[in-house]
Structures are given as structure tokens and as C-alpha cells.
Amino acid sequence: RIGPAFRTSHPLASGPVVQPAPTVDGFVETFLGELNYGQGTLLSQSTVNDQYLALARTVRRYLMADWLETGTRRRQTQQKTVGYLSAEYLLGRQLGNNLLATNLQDIAQVAMERCGIDIATLRAQEVEPGLGNGGLGRLAACFVDSLATMDVPCIGYGIRYEYGIFRQTFEADRQVEVPDSWLSLGNPWEFPHPERQVLVSFGGSTETTTDADGRERCTWTPDWQVIGMPYHYMVPGHRNGVVNTLRLWSARATQAFDLQIFNSGDYAQAVRAQTTAENISKVLYPEDSTPQGKELRLQQQYFFVACSLHDFIDNTLPADFDLRRLHQRIIFQLNDTHPVIAIPELMRILVDRKGFAWDEAWEITQKCFAYTCHTLLPEALEVWSAELLGRLLPRHLEIIYRINEEFLEEVREAHPGDEMLVRRMSIIAEHPERAVRMAYLATVAASKVNGVAELHSQLLRDKVLPDFSRLWPEKFTNVTNGVTPRRFVRLANRRLSDLLTETIGDGWVTDLDRLRELEPYADDAGFREQFRAVKQANKERLTTLLRVRDGLELPPEAMLDVMVKRLHEYKRQTLKLLHIVSLYDDVVSGRVPAEQVTPRTFVFGAKAAPGYHLAKEIIFLINAVADVVNADPAVAGRLSVAFPANYNVTLAEKLIPAADLSEQISLAGKEASGTGNMKFALNGALTIGTDDGANVEIRRLVGDEHFFLFGMTEPEVEELTARGYTPSAVYESDPQLRSTIDLLASGHFTGGDRQAVAPVVDNLLHQDSFMVLADFRAYLDAQARVDAAYADPDAWSRSAILNVARSGYFSSDRSMRDYLERIWHA
Ligand code: OX2
């Protein structure tokens, strides 16, 4: 460390950090400086990667003064901070976003031209940090963007995975996972801070002794430790001079550990020890909403929350801070159950390290956490076996047991004699093995519990946590998800953004309710014309991209019908597939003349968790159907199917602005919210969707006439489940469904191979857990309504414009205001 004497001895050391001049000349000069002194190369010799890195570092320089200034201001004001704890952040590319935030887009473009560089090539060089799976991770990224834009103090805490979500490729139509080594060409957006590293302990045993004054003290003697090394990322607000911090932790082996083994001469063992430690932040778990009982995953969870709590309490708060006031300085928001082990960790810090009495520590802890649940699927609620938790974190298991004991006492007091209730509510499950229910632990400890859309929050109260919501009704609340208009409108859809700004001014970028002002223009024929031209240009941009990126040839005129999201049975990509097959079947069987079919391009984008076999079979089937449909002259110019591999944030930014129709077709009661649905509506696509998640609110806001609703409602699903659902009976009763499934089953799409389609077809006919067949008829009818509506371009554009105008509510800025008001009180 450099001592304070040195720091203040130079006159420049205490002065403000100077930003480079926000001019083309200033930009060129900084860029060339970065190329020469940062990359150690000459413009004439530099590679595209050199140029990208130098450009990124240039933009970083413009942000640095604001970052340092924001940090200083935060330290001075000591305002309450949001500590967002999330195992995932699906950030998307940084360069474009940071140019937008700093208002340097045009300057950078001209500056690069002066250097003879095409900036688009440099943008394409950036590998997006895929540190998340899907909606949950992308939501976290939208939230930190909004908080910075609203100048709310926030530290996003998470894990710097060395390998993010796998890169998906297709071989013989099947998903193949390629490791995502996103760091291999260098990462200009991160700053390692070794001086803030933290030691994290695992394993070992505990011992309780009694002090002279009769107080029990627990000491945990761990077995092994790892170092948490923080990497800081800038999170700039939109043109407001604010830059918040995302602090992602990377695991390192401790030197002491290494050296000891090295000195004993066992080099292989030393390397193994290092591997064990560094494995912790090696890979992101490639799942979305179904946990695998993996020890490494629990290690990851504890690792990052232990680092984060330590970081805030010991390295961020002033040394003399009175921890009884902790809740006035921080609220830790638990992004689903992944960080819930932070609760016993804070108790451990307060009781074992800081010497608080249990009751006082519990009072503090309860005020410092709030919990967001993102699912309704019972299999997605994390449960850790007590054996594993006790082995890895013995002290934490003891603390959890004590929390549970005291909580169950409270239940017994409120409901004397109801032992069934006590068993139901226990944080500890006894069957099939003793295990910790993390969602219950979170609910017991948190000051607030929220779902992510109105319907979800209601089902969370009524179905998932009914006993808890009866005990503490005031604890439960809703905050409907949102998405950042900066990335998903302004950056992704420049053409629409310019049209919006020309029409209603640029206030909408940070105040999305202003989109309401667009409503009257829905009735303006000239505006509708411009709006259609924007959509058409976006489609052409997409067509070009998919030609270059995937070798796909798509007709740029057809309706673009898009279903992009993680592959999961409950999301029902198979329902979409049955629709496509039925349209194709109608034509090839001669029932419907090809000319009567509305030209459509169907686009899928989806990754399947590598261990989720049925999901991978569905991917195979979509690709197989695409191959045949695209090659069959009978439907040429009418139906085409595109499944570009490796759907990610970068691709979403190109796909969503081009879409006409947004597919949100999950079985009612299964999709907690969805956020893709919001992005599509904001970009002027119409939704075909079930009464599920945030679809309910989208439909209410945009109006029934501008939304294609279909399918069973959640109570109807419940009722059918209770009555007993037999998919084969539905198949027998609907000739069109029968014909569609028979065509699939015949091997028509798989070169006659019936075995290849059997896993999906058999599942639909004999299990169909998510009632695809039950909703098939309603879905096809709704799609016929879509065709009819699309046939009137003026009416369609009017609806599309109204979708944009009425979707301002789905800004993540609004979500953040709701969290601030209902949960954080920051
Ligand atoms: C997802 C939910 O499935 C999705 O409905 C929601 O929009 C998103 O989280 C953000 O709230 N893992 N991913 C999710 O939940 C879990 C668990």
C-alpha cells in the first residue's frame, strides 16, 4: 500500500481526476494513447482485438472521473445502500451501453473513422459476459442499470465465473455445448482489487465454550479456506454522471496452503489444492430454475455471500460503525434462494465475531434482508441436505437449527396444538432426508418477501407459502419486473428511438411513462407509415445478420413470429412447434392452398440445460422440422423456420426490434413473470400469450384488442389437474391435432426415423405435464386471429404503436421505485 504521505505530497494527487475532452480530437488522442501505451502497439500494426481493447479503455477513461466521484460522494453521505446479492448477472455487451451512457456514440464513430476503423467491427469483437442463464440474471442487470440512472447507491454482488453460460452450437440438429472462455482475449471492463481480497472458510468443526460471565461462545475451526478476489465493474447511469459498482468475486487458492504442500514436495497435491479452490468460480451452473444438488454450487453460494458481507461490513463501513444501525446503511436483496446462506452468515458475524447476543443479532439480521422469489415450480425451490450443509458449513447449520427452533416456538404460540402446521412450516424438512428449505429460511428472516408479477405474487402467497402469508400477511408484497429502456429500446432499436424522440422528445429514455404521449399518433396514417418503415428496416438488419452469422436465408417480407427464452417444458416450445407442423400439414396434405397461408418466418432461440434431456430432444425436433419445412417447395415463400444457435443478450438486441409477433405461451401459473414479453411489447410486437406471469398486466395495459389471449387460466389448469388430465384423449378428439402429431410421429421430419421423434411425441401423448395438447385448439384459433389481424397492416400498426405507448410501466426504473417504496425504504 502507498502511504498517505506519498499520496498527498504531489500537488496533482489530491486534485480532481480529469476526464479526456469529449471531442473527436480528444477521443482520437486518448484512443491512440491507449493503443500505444496500453496495448503496446501502433495503429498500423494493431489487430482488431487491440483496437477493441483500446477503444474500450478509452470509453473507460471517460467514465473514470464519474466513478471515483460517485464513490467519494457515497462514502461522504453514508446513505443507505442496496446490496443486490445475485448469483447471476447477464450483462450483455458493455461497449455500446457505455458509449450510450456517456453520450459518446457519435464522437466515437467519427473518431474511429478518422483512424480508418469501422466501429461496428470493434463492437462485434466484444464477447458478452454471459454470467447468467436467463431472465433472473438479466433482471439483475436491468436493476443495477436503473439504480445507477436513478442515482441510488447500490453495490451489485456476484460471481466472476471464468466460464459463463456455454456457447451453443448445433451438430446434426442437436445441441452441443462449447465452453465460453469469455476472458481469453482480455477483459477491459474489469478492475481487480487484490487489496480488498477476503478469506472464506469451509468445513471443519465447531466448539462451544462458556465465558467467565456465563455467556456461550462458539468457535468454528474450518478445514480449508479460499481467497475471494474482487473485480469491479462500472455501472454507469444514463448521462447523469453517476457510476455505481458491480463487485464480482473470483476464487483463488491461499498461498499458505499452497506453500505448505509445495514444501513437503507433493507438487501434484499442491496443484490439486489450487484446483479445488479455483473451481469455485470456474463455471456458471447452466440451469434456469431447477437446482442440482451439487456441492460445488453450495460452495459458490456461500463463497460469494461470505465475501460480500465481509466486504460491506469490514471494508466499506467506517471502522467505528455501530452495527446496531446496520439496517440504516444496507439492505441486502436476495435474488431468489441462491444467496440465502447470507442469513446465517450475518448471524455468525454478529454473534461469533462481533459479540452480539443472539436476540439482538436476530433483530438486526431481520431488518437487513429482503427476499425475491422468482418461481412457482416446486422443484426449483432450493433444498440443501443437512448432511452436506453441516459438512461444508457446520456453524451455519447450527445457526439455522436455532433460527428454526425459535421460529417454530412462535408458530406454536400463535397456533397451540397444531403440530401439523409446525411440521409444514419447519425450515427443516425431514423427508426424504433431513434438509434445509432455503425459501422458508429466507421467508422467516426477511423483512419483505416479493413475487415478480401480480399473479405470481398472489400464487406465491396462496400456493407456495400459504402458512407464512397467513402468519405474516404484511410481509408479502409484489413488485412486477421491468426492463431497462436504455439497452432494450434506445440501444437495441436506434430507428424506433429516433422516431420516438422526433415525435415526443427524448424524455422517455429515463421516464418511460412518457411513451403515453405517443397514443394519439396511432391514429396518424403518416406516423404509422414511419413506424412500419422502422420495423421493416429492423427486419432487414436481422435478415442480414442471420445470413452472415448463421448462413440462414430468410424472406424479409414475412411476418416475424418469435419465441426466444430458455428451453423448458413449461414454456411450451412444443406448442409453437405443433402450430408450425399443423400449418405445414395443412398445405402438404392439400387441405389449404399455399396462397392462403400468411407468410411467416418463425424464429426460435433457446438453450437447454446440458443435463435436461427432454429439452435437448425438443431442440433436435425443432431443427429437424426447420430443415424439412425450409426445403419443401410446397411451402416456399410461405413458411420458414429459423433457429439461430446461441441465443444471448446480443442476439436478443437484434431479434426483438424486428419481431411482429411475440410468443408468450407458458402454461398458466408456471411463468413467474417473464421479461422478454415486456421487451417485445416495448419494441412494437403484438403478443400471443396465455394468462400467465406479467402477460396479465401487459394485456390489461395495452388493451384486450391489442393482445391475442388464449388458453386455460390458472384455476382452469388446477381444475383439470384435479379432474385428471389425459393427453391421449385430447389427441383422439381433435382430428387436426391427430394429423399434426401423426405427421411428426411418422418420421417425416427425421428421414423416416420414428425413434428420433419418440421421446417428445411419447411424452406429449402420455404425460404432457404442461398440458400442451389441452391448449392446442385454443392456440390455433388465436393464431388464426393473428393472421386475420395481420392482413390489415394499418390496424396492425395501430395496435403495435399502442403496445409501445402503453408499455412504459414495464421500465425497470418503475420496478426500482416500487422496491424503494415497498421494500428498501432507501
Ligand atoms: C426467472 C423466471 O422463470 C421468469 O419468469 C422471471 O421473469 C425471471 O426469473 C425474472 O424474475 N430462475 N429463473 C427465473 O426464476 C428462477 C428460479
* Terminal Cα span: 34 Å
CATH superfamily of the largest domain: Glycogen Phosphorylase B
Low-confidence stretches: 1-6
Shape: globular
InterPro entries: Glycg_phsphrylas (IPR011833), Glyco_trans_35 (IPR000811), Pyridoxal_P_attach_site (IPR035090)
Catalytic activity: [(1->4)-alpha-D-glucosyl](n) + phosphate = [(1->4)-alpha-D-glucosyl](n-1) + alpha-D-glucose 1-phosphate
Keywords: Carbohydrate metabolism, Glycosyltransferase, Pyridoxal phosphate, Transferase
Protein name: Alpha-1,4 glucan phosphorylase
Features:
Rossmann fold, EC 2.4.1.1, 10-stranded mixed β-sheet, Pyridoxal_P_attach_site, 25 strands, 49% helix, single chain, alpha/beta, Alpha-1,4 glucan phosphorylase, 826 residues, 34 helices, pyridoxal phosphate binding, 14% strand, 6-stranded parallel β-sheet, binds ligand OX2
Give a quick summary of the entry:
The protein is built from 34 helices and 25 strands.
What's the topology here?
Layout: H1 4-9, H2 24-38, H3 48-77, E1 81-85, E2 89-90, H4 95-101, H5 105-114, H6 119-125, E3 130-131, H7 135-149, E4 154-159, E5 167-171, E6 174-178, E7 190-192, E8 198-202, E9 205-210, E10 216-221, E11 224-236, E12 243-253, H8 255-263, H9 267-279, H10 295-316, H11 326-329, E13 330-335, H12 342-353, H13 358-368, E14 369-372, E15 383-385, H14 386-392, H15 394-414, H16 419-425, E16 428-429, E17 435-437, H17 438-445, E18 449-451, H18 454-464, H19 466-471, E19 476-478, H20 485-491, H21 494-504, H22 525-550, E20 559-564, H23 573-588, E21 600-605, H24 613-631, E22 639-642, H25 649-655, E23 661-664, H26 676-682, E24 686-689, H27 695-702, E25 708-709, H28 714-723, H29 727-733, H30 735-745, H31 758-766, H32 772-790, H33 793-805, H34 812-824
Parallel strand pairs: 1-4, 1-13, 4-12, 13-14, 14-18, 18-19, 20-21, 20-23, 21-22, 23-24, 24-25
Antiparallel strand pairs: 2-3, 5-6, 7-11, 8-11, 9-10, 11-12, 15-17, 16-17
The protein binds ligand OX2.
